[in-house]
């Protein structure tokens, strides 16, 4: 796997990162359906960047079929997707702290760390909002 499809829920800030072999429209649509929607259900709205895979007929048709409102961020304005950009920064720095060639193996542990970290603006963690309880993590995970 070479790429990651990333998604962040706006309410809980729950992040997902799905390893994918390419950035083709078919791969993106399939991964979104089988990865995100199969776990969390159909979102009311999907905000994406201006990647051609999100502007394709396939992704638009999938969104329309599922009843999802599709919006796009402002081009060349990363602030319009702040939660996703912050997630990307945290994810990248955490993965780089591990051996870069083993990033795929480190991904699940990095994600649980991000999901269970306290978010001051939410006064809780994403994991607590999703699961209704604090995740019990091994102490050595943080040391």
UniProtKB/TrEMBL annotation:
GO biological process: DNA integration
InterPro entries from the UniProt entry: Integrase_cat-core, RNaseH-like_sf, RNaseH_sf
PROSITE patterns named among the record's database cross-references: INTEGRASE
Pfam family, one: rve
Molecular function terms, GO-annotated: nucleic acid binding
Integrase catalytic domain location: 1-143
Record-linked SUPFAM superfamilies: Ribonuclease H-like
Name of the protein in question: Integrase catalytic domain-containing protein
Organism the protein comes from: Araneus ventricosus
Species classification: Eukaryota, Metazoa, Ecdysozoa, Arthropoda, Chelicerata
């Amino acid at each position: 796997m070479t790429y990651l499809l990333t998604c962040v829920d706006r309410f809980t800030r729950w992040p997902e990162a799905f390893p994918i072999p390419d950035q083709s429209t078919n791969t993106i649509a399939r991964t979104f359906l089988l990865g995100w929607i199969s776990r969390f259900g159909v979102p009311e709205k999907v905000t994406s960047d201006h990647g051609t895979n999100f502007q394709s007929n396939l992704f638009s048709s999938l969104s329309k079929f599922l009843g999802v409102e599709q919006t796009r961020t402002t081009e060349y304005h990363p602030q319009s997707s702040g939660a996703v950009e912050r997630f990307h920064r945290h994810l990248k720095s955490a993965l780089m702290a591990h051996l870069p060639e083993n990033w795929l193996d480190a991904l699940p542990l990095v994600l649980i760390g991000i999901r269970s970290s306290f978010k001051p603006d939410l006064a809780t963690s994403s994991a607590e909002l999703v699961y209704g309880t604090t995740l019990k993590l091994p102490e050595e995970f943080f040391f």
